[in-house]
Task: inverse folding
């Protein structure tokens, strides 16, 4: 969330010293995380945190909410820089979740444990039957046997050593003695120079060797899978796949997001009461959804609507927002309580005022409300957002770093959001070209809408009169770039749209 805020600060002041420094800090952090030991270089995704100052030795547990937030950070970085390394990292997070963390019902599992069974070839004195990171670590001998003549190149690049590579002090229980946790010790360029090979050849060798080791690793006992489908965390992941579909133009990611949203609506939502349950595992939980379940799912549905323009997801988000406001909103003081107050065993209703490993419900809700205010032209949504931000004014004044996601909402509120309206058939080549141009730009203070004359347009036009006059011109799809629906002249080609968005 800190990275999320820093990139919004850059977008607000891209030419200022502050904005440039915010971008530099973010990109440096993302590069080092991608190169470090927290990143699973073979299977994708990130472990929960590092236990050492070098970001080398992780606690190997993989959490769904981390994958979601990091994927979005790398997608944002790719939008800004067009650096394919950020695209690659975003894809490997999304592909890991799609491959290993997706249930047959379409929802996403919660986590993979850090420990797994020790197997022949990585056993050592002192190990128990299960060990931290056993699924992920390698001896030098294993790599030499598996990779043959290119083992030295792989070992140089990923810091593999004969006696193991865990830094001193980072392995207090001796679990990684003689073991290697893969970390990019050298860049492709450095590895190329060291071995006198071209960079393309080295990149191809590294890709091939990673695939070889990934296939071998797949034969090991996997860490335990926490196969609960938690509403809140699924909402975050729906956002990530929706953003991946937009930024990378990947229809597979859109399908994954839609399947997950369908799973939530089918298994974790009661249409009669318009309420969510907390989780699903071999049946619907009896635990009612909390404020973060509603907030994160609404965010995911708004992102999914802007990726697909399927109006059903916007309608679902609006229904959930109505329920969230009724169950959790503090009409007297602003902000959202974590619980509904319907459980008599809970004596005190609290409001989360810290954007930690997961953002606070009020922080996400404030931005949701601001986006809905733009999409529906509803002043009540904006008022509730402003009351929510004001409720945490003391925290934002004293320790603003405690709520970086609330600062993102505050930035949106203090800006002049753009409405980008594409008028034309959804599936036409011209419409798709305009949307690709929109998604090529990092412009976080905006909403995107489609005026295609179909059911979705009719629903939007009920509240947005300005949308009624936005039509294709001379049979061509066009884009309108607006502030408060005061629009510049429509354009029909991507180059002209790019100039308006720059």
Result:
């Amino acid at each position: 969330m800190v990275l999320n805020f820093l990139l919004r600060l850059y977008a607000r002041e891209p030419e200022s010293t502050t904005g440039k420094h915010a971008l530099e800090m973010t990109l440096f952090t993302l590069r080092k995380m991608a190169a470090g030991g927290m990143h699973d270089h073979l299977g994708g995704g990130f472990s929960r945190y590092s236990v050492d100052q070098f970001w080398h030795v992780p606690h190997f547990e993989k959490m769904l909410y981390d994958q979601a937030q990091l994927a979005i950070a790398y997608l944002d970085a790719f939008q800004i820089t067009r650096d394919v390394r950020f695209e690659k990292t975003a894809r490997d997070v999304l592909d890991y979740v799609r491959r290993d963390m997706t249930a047959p019902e379409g929802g996403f599992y919660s986590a993979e444990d850090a420990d797994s069974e020790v197997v022949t070839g990585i056993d050592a004195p002192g190990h128990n039957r299960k060990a931290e990171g056993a699924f992920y670590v390698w001896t030098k001998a294993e790599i030499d046997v598996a990779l043959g003549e290119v083992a030295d190149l792989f070992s140089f690049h990923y810091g593999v050593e004969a006696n193991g590579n865990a830094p001193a002090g980072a392995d207090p229980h001796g679990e990684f003695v003689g073991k290697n946790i893969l970390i990019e010790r050298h860049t492709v360029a450095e590895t190329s120079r060291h071995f006198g090979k071209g960079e393309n050849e080295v990149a191809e060798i590294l890709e091939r060797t990673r695939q070889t080791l990934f296939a071998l690793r797949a034969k090991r006992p996997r860490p335990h899978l926490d196969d609960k489908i938690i509403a809140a965390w699924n909402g975050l992941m729906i956002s990530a796949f929706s953003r991946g579909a937009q930024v990378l133009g990947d229809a597979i990611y859109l399908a994954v997001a839609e399947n997950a949203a369908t799973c939530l609506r089918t298994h974790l939502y009661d249409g009669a009461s318009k309420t969510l349950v907390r989780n699903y595992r071999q049946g619907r939980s009896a635990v009612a959804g909390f404020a973060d379940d509603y907030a994160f799912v609404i965010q995911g549905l708004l992102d999914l609507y802007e990726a697909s323009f399927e109006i059903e997801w916007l309608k679902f988000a609006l229904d959930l927002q109505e329920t969230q406001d009724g169950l959790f909103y503090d009409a007297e003081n602003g902000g959202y309580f974590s619980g509904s107050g319907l459980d008599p065993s809970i004596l005190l209703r609290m409001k989360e005022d810290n954007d930690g490993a997961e953002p606070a419900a009020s922080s996400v809700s404030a931005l949701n409300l601001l986006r809905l205010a733009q999409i529906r032209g509803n002043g009540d949504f904006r008022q509730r957002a402003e009351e929510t931000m004001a409720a945490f004014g003391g925290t934002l004044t004293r320790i603003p770093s405690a709520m970086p996601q609330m600062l993102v909402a505050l930035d949106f509120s203090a800006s002049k959001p753009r409405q980008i309206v594409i008028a034309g058939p959804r599936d036409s080549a011209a419409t798709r070209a305009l949307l690709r141009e929109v998604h090529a730009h990092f412009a976080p203070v905006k909403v995107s809408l489609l005026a295609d004359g179909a059911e979705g347009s009719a629903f939007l036009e009920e509240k947005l009169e300005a949308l009624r006059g936005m039509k294709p011109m001379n049979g061509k799809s066009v884009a309108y770039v607006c502030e408060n629906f005061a629009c510049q002249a429509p354009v029909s080609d991507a180059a002209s749209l790019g100039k308006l968005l720059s």
